[in-house]
Amino acid sequence: MSVRAFMPQPTILAFTPRERSRALLRVAFGRRRARVIPVRTPAELESAATRHLVDAVIVDLAAATEETWKVAAYAREYPSAPFFGILAMRSADAGALAQAASLDFADVLAEGIDDSAARDLVCPLTFTARFAVALDEPPPQLALATERQLVVWRAIVAHGGRPVRTAPLAQSLGISREHLSRAFASTAAPNLKRVIDFVRLLAAAELAKNPGYDIRDVAAVLEFASSSHLSTSAQRVVGTRPASLARLRTIDLIQRFAQGRSRSRG
Question: What separation in angstroms does the CA of 242 have from each of 101, 195, 217, 230?
Answer without folding.
Answer: 32, 18, 12, 7
